[in-house]
């Protein structure tokens, strides 16, 4: 399990959100893909931000209350998302997950989005492996 890489559990079939996308279309993409958030990219697939369900809920509530029309993702996205490398160990990422941490991470290789990895994908991988994580063995240690 220690050697399992993000590239082996990431989803690369989900289309990212483009700048300028109306929030109502973002909501449809989130629901269609069963994810809690998606990266926002430019035309070269460079990650510019991240938009979550919560961002959309808040934005739609505010715009509806003020009758402002459909907001765009640029106005609601988080502009400094945490990203991970496809070569990162799944165990290393799992050890960094916690309260207040993202549930979805954009996977970036050479500055471009190549996929996303979710907590659900990591949990599924742990379940598939029987929850066993390879531990380093120490000389003289008793098993």
TrEMBL record:
Keywords assigned:
CBS domain
Which Gene3D superfamilies has this protein been placed in? CBS-domain
Q: Which organism is it from?
A: Marinobacter nauticus (strain ATCC 700491 / DSM 11845 / VT8) (Marinobacter aquaeolei)
InterPro entries cross-referenced by the UniProt entry? CBS_bac, CBS_dom, CBS_dom_sf, Diverse_CBS-Domain
Query: What is the protein's given name?
Result: CBS domain containing protein
Residue ranges annotated for the CBS domain, each copy included: 10-68, 77-135
Q: Which CDD domains match?
A: CBS_pair_bac
Note the superkingdom of the native organism: Bacteria
